[in-house]
Amino acid sequence: MARDICTLDNVYANNLGMLIKLANVTVLDIYEDTFFTELFAEDTSVTKNKKANSKKDVRFTQLAYYSEIQVGGLVARLVPKKQNELSLKGIQIEFLGVLPNYRDKSIGSKLLKFAEDKCSECHQHNVFVYIPALDNSAKEWFIAHGFEQHGDVFNNFIKRLNGDEQDAILLKKHIS
Amino acid sequence: MSRKRGTKAKPVAKANLKKENDQFLEALKLYEGKQYKKSIKLLDAILKKDGGHVDSLALKGLDLFSISEKDDATSYVANAIRKIEGTSASPICCHVLGIYMRNTKEYTESIKWFTAALNNGSTNKQIYRDLATLQSQIGDFKNALISRKKYWESFLGYRANWTSLAVAQDINGERQQAINTLSQFEKLAEGKISDSEKYEHNECLIYKNDVMYKAAGDIQDKLQNVLKHLNDIEPYVFDKFGLLERKASIYMKLGQLKDASIVYRTLIKRNPDNFKYYKLLEVSLGIQGNDKVKKALYAKLEQFYPRCEPPKFIPLTFIQGEEELSKKLKEYVLPQLKRGVPATFSNVKSLYQRRTSKISPLLESIVLEYLSGIDGKQDPIPFIWTNYYLSQHYLFLNDFPKAQKYIDAALDHTPTLVEFYILKARILKHLGLLDTAADILEEGRQLDLQDRFINCKTVKYFLRANNIDKAVEIASLFTKNDDSINGIKDLHLVEASWFIMEQAEAYYRLYLESKKRLDDLTSSKNEVKSDESEETADDIKDNKWLVQKYKGLALKRFQAIPKFYKQFEDDQLDFHSYCMRKGTPRAYLEMLEWGNELYTKPMYVRAMKGAAKLYFQMYDDHLKRKADVIDEESEGSENNGASSNSSQKKKAKKEAAAMNKRKEAEAKSVAAYPTDQDDDVFGEKLIETATPMEDFANCFYDNYSKQAREDDRDYVLDFEFNYRVGKLALCFASLNKFAKRFGSTNGLFGSMAIVLLHATKDNTRFDVILKKVVTKSFEKDYSEVLPLNETSSDSFDWLKFYQETFNVKDIRGLLFLYRYREEVALEQSYLKEAIINNLSLLEPHAQNEVLQYQL
Fold first, then answer.
1. Which domains does chain B have, with CATH numbers?
2. What residues of chain B score a pLDDT lower than 50?
3. Could you tell me which residue ranges the N-acetyltransferase domain spans (chain A) (predicted)?
4. Is the backbone of residue B85 left (phi > 0), alpha (psi -120 to 50) or beta?
């Protein structure tokens, strides 16, 4: 069988830099480096980065490869409990990005599928994501992949590294 | 057993003597059983009674060496040797001393004692084998043959001994005897070769053919014989490639080209990726000059081997017609770009190098056209690799802005590919932006921390940017850092010469920089001359230490390289017997050849040249110091007067203590060897030497000089070395050879000639007779090229003469003159100007290097 030109693989401590690079290129000014370095802060073992025993959040990370080149990444968090009225429980996508030149190749769909699979594995029923209210292309993309808007606009929800604040909307997809 | 005694042994009763002897033999047995401590105990008992018992002294030395108390061992052995007249000791004693010397790698001495053991009546035939090994190691093959023969006579039952004998005969040019030896054994062994011995047998058979082939020369009958032998042994030989290659070359020598071509075709069939066979096929077909036939041939071969490189590639090296060449290049390059082959440019680089003017414009237009037809989004893979290709293309043509443009396009498109960072850094390096280049690589390295290649590259670039701490930190990620804070020790242990070399050069550059700063500081201090300048005084002290540290460490690292090469040389020792036992004479001979040019390998030469700069400078400083020794003395007394004040003394003491503390802390991060093996971490002793030229000769130059072939010697280095040791005649010889190879309008020739001419003046330090010899030689060979009569006149403008006569475009000549400006009394500023005027011919990186470190 011919190998798929697009594949997914885990993130390890050694190629974390790739994920950081991808995040900084595809989504500007949002992520602090510590967000990523914390993923491997506790132990740098190259097994799964699931930290079931620790009190910390459980996160799932993946890198997408196109022809052996890293072109996309995913960070998703398991939210087992509702944090407040308006929020949801389930799998929250914190970062999902593909290099602009490699879009429309179903790479993002693959990453999303990975998150959805994890959702069922963890016996959750929601995959959700906060995106800037003004980002139409992102919205379209998620809606095309079966997401729906949940609730109203969250004012000044997204805080950028340069201090700006942005409104956000919450999108969710129900996984049965 | 009759044994001679050392002269100092007192006459003792016979019974006592016998007891002593028994005890000694007992100790010897213990030594052989590796029970060194027990052995020493017994020997101590003997020595207590008879302190002059030479045998015991020697054996105790050997015992001590074995439990690695090397200093004590040395003194015992020295004591034993002092008591022996010449070599007249007991054979056992001589043997023991021989083994000791072999362990301490004093091979010549070891041979002396082994020989003495035999001469003094030892019946131990094993000594001959050890002797042969040692003689081979020091390259004394004539005597090695004798030893091999003796050993062979005593132990005819081993194939290894026959093989060794044959090899020794072969090396000594006794080819026929070697063939006979091998044949004799073949007869003895006929029909008795077991399966496990078949490989050894096959090697010996083909080795015999080697010897026959060498012996045959161009004589037709003999070659026929070799061919016949080759056909006979064919079923038993495993190395089919070697066999076929030999067969083909015999056919070629015999003029049976048709047969040769058939063999080459067979070889191509076996391995269609070996370029060599295609070239030889051309030769055997006699079509080297005939492009038309060649084209047809390769078209045919391409059909046979569609997946192989050579038939596609070789036509690109000779096709002349532009249209056709362009078509072929397209067929070769575009499919690779389409597939996204990263090495596409590397694949055609040899074409660029050989046919720049023809190939590069063609490929440029082909690839540009291709790039314009693809879209980054639709075909991302071809797009990025084509940009990558073009960047390399323009880098090759030294068009840096364009190279940058294309690599930036690739990086913008796909910022996750490490290769792009490497290329970008390379371009920046050529532009002389070393710090930025290192930072770019660091950015790339962060993407993939487990990639050893980019790790090494980043380290190298940081070293180039003189950022040693960062480089060491990164390098240490991949080293074993058990008992040290960084990987320096491990890098020495694993003989990572690339790192040590780059670090040495970085230290050297830092040394030059800090020296410049120190000079500036001291000169400005002299101007101020006030007591307020305490801060500058501290600064100066600080800088003095830096200068010394960098200089010492640079030399220390340069010195580490020849240590590796010495180790390589020593490593051969085991193979003189191992290869014979394993029956691999061909590999053995290859190793000997390698050993014969070991000290001319690029890394060694590079270290030598790096060290030469330091040693030559040290020597020149010595000379200068001698010249103005009086000035310094007066200065010294002044200093003493000033510091006699007790509070100042205290302060000095405090400072010294602080300094020592600082040194101790720093030592941990620069130590190259385990503490017990290195008492000169900073190389301070190395740079304090009173005999720099001797040190240089011992550590670097002698080995090189012995092995360097006449046709690739570095005559300039020879010249500079011999100039300093005062051997002007040899300087002239180097100059002469240089002129023969590079012509007498070469800039370096001009510079060397001018320096040498000035050395012949009356008031120089050189030997009068040598000066005369050189003057005469100049008159004989170069009276037309050089203004010999002007040597004694002070008004002659040598720089003008140089610029009018020699090729000034080669900056090396002017830089050479610059180094010797004081000897030839040239005005520094004019010379500097001349150099700077010619700098623009160099690329930016090289310009910086000259400006920063050579002027």
1. 14-193 (1.25.40.1040), 480-626+670-706 (no CATH), 709-855 (no CATH)
2. 1-11, 632, 634-643
3. 18-176
4. beta
